[in-house]
Specification:
Layout (H helix, E strand, L loop, with lengths): L2 E4 L1 H5 L4 H11 L5 H16 L5 H8 L1 H5 L2 H16 L5 H12 L3 E9 H11 L3 E10 L2 E7 L6 H14 L7 E4 L5 H4 L4 E5 L3 H10 L3 E2 L4
Parallel strand pairs: 1-2, 1-5, 2-3, 5-6, 6-7
Antiparallel strand pairs: 3-4
Length: about 220
């Protein structure tokens, strides 16, 4: 059984779930719209350019989870899935997942976006497991802090290595699909790296290395 690894945002999704969640919270009035959207946009641009300070971003993005009651969070995410996420899952993304299922590959989403946002998305996509940045919880509520290593850049490699030891899987004949220059450390580790609708830096790197370039967008 080979591993098929998938980045989520701008790879399986035609959009960035972390950024979209921030916009959704602003639209729903749970955060100050102008100030939050301004910072959300700044962090997103820094991510795309490879300049993101992940700890600064997580302090910003996880704070609302600690301020909104859990019952409200659950209903907000249900609405978020219906309005913002499901319409951004393309048929081509589902077809790619099905192709790996037909080979009996193990499907793993590995994403920097936090587990609160991404776990329901992984369930919707029907993958076998999820590695994501874990928000800390205490007595059933989010604290606004991160638990463990953020699943970002080199941290994504570290988290995967821990998961491999725990599960007994390995990277023999492994695949990884990603859009982002931030995932170059992990793309370099797998047998079959694939650039999906890549940013300019990743596209240049993929062409230089002879990696396949794929589009899942309609």
């Amino acid at each position: 059984m080979a591993l098929a690894l998938f980045d989520l945002d701008n790879t399986l999704l035609n959009g960035d779930s972390d950024y979209l969640w921030g916009c959704f919270l602003a639209q729903q009035g749970w955060v100050d719209k102008d100030a939050y959207e301004r910072e959300n946009h700044r962090f997103y641009e820094e991510y795309k350019s490879g300049q993101l300070d992940i700890h600064e971003f997580l302090a910003f993005s996880l704070r609302p989870l600690s301020e909104i009651p859990p019952r409200e969070l659950s209903e907000l995410h249900r609405q978020f899935m219906a309005r913002e996420i499901c319409p951004r899952i393309t048929p081509a993304a589902r077809t790619l997942l099905d192709k790996h299922r037909s080979r009996d590959d193990f499907l793993l989403i590995i994403t920097a976006t936090n587990r609160f946002i991404t776990e329901p998305i992984a369930e919707e996509l029907g993958v076998d497991d999820l590695l994501a940045t874990d928000p800390e919880q205490l007595d059933g509520r989010y604290t606004g802090q991160v638990s463990g290593t953020p699943c970002f850049r080199d941290g994504k490699v570290q988290r995967l290595e821990q998961w491999l030891k725990q599960t007994g899987h390995n990277l023999a004949d492994s695949w990884f699909y990603s859009d982002s220059l931030n995932d170059l450390p992990l793309l370099e580790r797998v047998t079959h790296p694939v650039a999906v609708d890549p940013d300019e830096t990743l596209a240049d790197h993929a062409r230089a290395r002879g990696w396949p370039i794929l589009s899942l967008r309609e």
